Amino acid sequence: MRILITGANRGLGLALAQVGAERGHQIIAGVRDLRKSTESLTQTEMYKSISLLPLDVTDEESVSSAASTVKETFGTIDAIINNAGVLLERDKQIEDLDLDQVKITFDVNFFGPMRVVKHFLPLLMMGDRSSIINISSEAGSMSNAYGGDYAYASSKTALNMFSQQLNQHVKHNNINVYSIHPGWIKTDMGGERAPGNPIVTAKGIFDIMEGKREIDGKNVFITYEGQPMPL
Fold first, then answer.
1. Catalytic: which of 48, 152, 218, 224?
2. pTM for the whole structure
3. Catalytic: 36?
4. Which residue from 91, 116, 145, 158 puts its CA 20 to 30 A from 77's CA?
5. Bridging pattern class, strands 26-31 and 2-6
6. pLDDT tens figures, 155-194
């Protein structure tokens, strides 16, 4: 498969690029800054199947340009993994929130995936076995709200709704849409105390895309192991 991954230069995105390349897929690694990304992505032995793509999910012109580049270079894609994300205003009380930081959070975590799908969906429609994976979080579950991380949690709840709506739009085109909780994993965002391994999560996500896990068709919000998550 030919797979676009946003935020592919570190954390879960880097793990996804590595696992995908190891499994023989062509990875199109969307990165905001090529100079800062080359070293981390070229450390994998499968680098020849990873193509770097300048892509800033907060800039629609950048996303549009990236889609044009991919169309000219590859013609079509088989999957999108909207992985780029930020965690800002952590543990801030509502009285202390910097709303500009909240806006940035939504711009990356929610509007970013919308921009990517808007411009790359036509390339995905050309395939015959396609997936859109939006990396969400348990924090986006309304029924499990824990009273904190207002910016991050709210952006992921919005992302879950976007996934639900998008699934209705594309389900008759043989495109699977999933909003995936990756678990608490050891990355820059998750921190050193996190028990999970991003490689394990990446393998689970690829199992889902490759059809190795049976997913109940009613569930769009799921774990990286394919289990349903409460909305």
1. 152
2. 0.95
3. no
4. 158
5. parallel
6. 999 999 999 999 999 989 989 999 999 998 988 787 777 7
